[in-house]
């Protein structure tokens, strides 16, 4: 079974990439941000110019052409479907588990102030650690779970005041 990623390039082109297909591309790191890539017997020079890991958006230059690339995995798609996507007009007052998993860590407590994108908790699911970030600025009203507990999809995790 392979992971599939939704990749948008320059907000105009959209591709589905399977991780096993990506692993077949011959890539050599030539510096911290530069790579030599060979795909289908064609050579490319790639450089990562900017990276916004929280939003999974990258600016890359391939053979002197610049691209803005956004990458979404299965969890990102589920979170977007639940209304947590960036730019959503919803006022999020509760965080629910996007999938079943095990709570590895909880970074907040009742009464704590948080800013947008602050880490709230870490959920292990499908052998991956997923950091659940705050969708907005606010104050934590309740934390409904404890570290080490298993949670079901849709289970209430955190409420905001």
From TrEMBL:
Keyword list (alphabetical) reads:
Biotin
Xref: Pfam families: Biotin_lipoyl
Q: What range(s) does the Lipoyl-binding domain occupy?
A: 79-161
Q: Which InterPro entries match?
A: Biotin_BS, Biotin_Carboxyl_Carrier/Decarb, Biotin_lipoyl, Single_hybrid_motif
| The UniProt record lists the keyword rRNA processing | no
Q: Does the keyword Magnesium apply?
A: no
> Any transmembrane segments, and where?
none
Q: What is this protein called?
A: Biotin/lipoyl-containing protein
Which organism does this record belong to?
A: Aquimarina gracilis
Lineage, please?
A: Bacteria, Pseudomonadati, Bacteroidota, Flavobacteriia, Flavobacteriales
């Amino acid at each position: 079974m392979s992971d599939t990623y939704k990749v948008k390039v320059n907000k105009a082109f959209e591709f589905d990439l399977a991780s096993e297909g990506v692993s077949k591309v011959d890539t050599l790191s030539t510096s911290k941000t530069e790579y030599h890539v060979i795909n289908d017997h064609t050579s490319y020079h790639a450089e990562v110019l900017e990276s916004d890991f929280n939003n999974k958006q990258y600016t890359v230059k391939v053979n002197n052409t610049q691209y803005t690339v956004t990458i979404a995995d299965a969890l990102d798609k589920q979170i977007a479907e639940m209304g947590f996507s960036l730019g959503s007009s919803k006022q999020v007052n509760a965080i629910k588990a996007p999938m079943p998993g095990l709570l590895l860590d909880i970074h907040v407590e009742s009464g704590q102030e948080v800013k947008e994108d602050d880490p709230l908790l870490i959920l292990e699911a499908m052998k991956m650690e997923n950091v659940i970030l705050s969708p907005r600025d606010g104050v934590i009203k309740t934390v409904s779970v404890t570290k080490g507990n298993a949670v079901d999809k849709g289970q209430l995790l955190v409420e905001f005041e």
